[in-house]
Amino acid sequence: MMRTRPLKVALLGCGVVGSEVARIMTTHADDLAQRIGAPVELAGVAVRRPAKVREGIPQELVTTDATALVKRGDIDVVVEVIGGIEPARTLITTAFEHGASVVSANKALLAQDGAALHAVAEQNDKDLYYEAAVAGAIPLIRPLRESLAGDKVNRVLGIVNGTTNFILDKMDSTGAGYQEALDEATALGYAEADPTADVEGFDAAAKAAILAGIAFHTRVRLDDVYREGMTEVTAADFRSAKEMGCTIKLLAICERSKDGTSVTARVHPAMIPLTHPLASVRGAYNAVFVESDAAGQLMFYGPGAGGAPTASAVLGDLVAVCRNRLNGATGPGESSYAALTVSSMGEVVTRYHISLDVADKPGVLAQVATVFAEHGVSIDTVRQQGKDGEASLVVVTHRASDASLSGTVEALRKLDTVRGVASIMRVEGE
Ligand SMILES: NC(=O)C1=CN([C@@H]2O[C@H](COP(=O)(O)OP(=O)(O)OC[C@H]3O[C@@H](n4cnc5c(N)ncnc54)[C@H](OP(=O)(O)O)[C@@H]3O)[C@@H](O)[C@H]2O)C=CC1
Ligand SMILES: N[C@@H](CC=O)C(=O)O
């Protein structure tokens, strides 16, 4: 039976994502009411610049006083799409304390303060949902939290940042420059307010922290995630990757140790074989592999950024939270998490592609090979190209720990025949 009194929604932020949330709430109002069992009403929209023309948003709903909006006391659900840590964190906390549940797309905040926010939500018997915080439109949080709750997830690996995938794809497929591709991603609404978060890997690291926490039922914070961005990836790296039958992607990889007592989470550019499904993920699309004991390997794929795709995930959460509200219930919380150790990057085992500038003279290869052997790093292939007394030496290793590889590189730098380490890239997905 349809309830006639509407559920009231406060929208905090009306930018790329918020404007699409408002549009869908209006255009799909009847369908949403049907699915929820009550109409939903946009009760207020908090922004920074009230004078800006916002199509479809009645001016009387617009306010710059987000605090007063969440304190009104008659708001059922606050949708936070402002981004950043403050004022978003205080607004969300205040919303719980004044009787509202919260839907957020704010991965930066959730990766940093997710545990504290969940605690406040639970103390106040309210929901905190955030499907849109990871991988845009792709349903990933709910499958991990609910569908796979009876299984044991061991690994989550994928592309979780649309902006950097867009840039790397453009650089690889059209030879576009980095800045040109970044400007296009920003104009399309994919990039964060400060795109440093995207290109330096902070956004993907926040998503990795959230994914690892939900997948392994533990707490992983942003600071626990090893992070390298993609600003150092060059056209030469793409050429080397092609010679190996690979391309380069910015990957987020979260793994549970074999004995199940610890986890690792990392974000960095990696070479992946062109035959791997992740190699064909184009533009701002994301794709995530989840490996679990019983299900085996699952792949989630779809638009990872942009206003409408992200709003789709926000609306899904809004419907779920409204239904919970009508049923007088809340969805699954996170208070039952175990405290697994988060291991350092040194313990991660993978393959490496190392490009060295060396002197082009006899014995160099043997010298370099000895250093690898002394550090217990086994070599898979070596390719040398020399010219005018200088040479470039490309070494691809078998699987080795990051700590052994770091020791190897430190020792290589001390050889007088090694002029420099041009690039080091991990090789994944084989
Ligand atoms: N863009 C995307 O593809 C995706 C974004 N997200 C996340 O969604 C959130 C929003 O992103 P996006 O829509 O792109 O960001 P935008 O920068 O486009 O929008 C931010 C909105 O917040 C408003 N705002 C900023 N500060 C305040 C404040 N102090 N009080 C009230 N309103 C404020 C802005 O107001 P005004 O309009 O007046 O400037 C604007 O409407 C972020 O957490 C982001 O990480 C998640 C997935 C994908
Ligand atoms: N800036 C982010 C937006 C979605 O999370 C991205 O590019 O993935």
TrEMBL record:
Its EC number is 1.1.1.3. Residues 353-426 form the ACT domain. L-homoserine binds at residue 192. CDD domains: ACT_HSDH-Hom (cd04881). GO terms for biological process: methionine biosynthetic process; threonine biosynthetic process. InterPro entries: ACT-like_dom_sf, ACT_dom, Asp/hSer_DH_NAD-bd, HDH, HDH_cat, HDH_CS, NAD(P)-bd_dom_sf. Catalyzes the conversion of L-aspartate-beta-semialdehyde (L-Asa) to L-homoserine (L-Hse), the third step in the biosynthesis of threonine and methionine from aspartate. Belongs to the homoserine dehydrogenase family. This is Homoserine dehydrogenase. It comes from Streptomyces roseochromogenus subsp. oscitans DS 12.976.
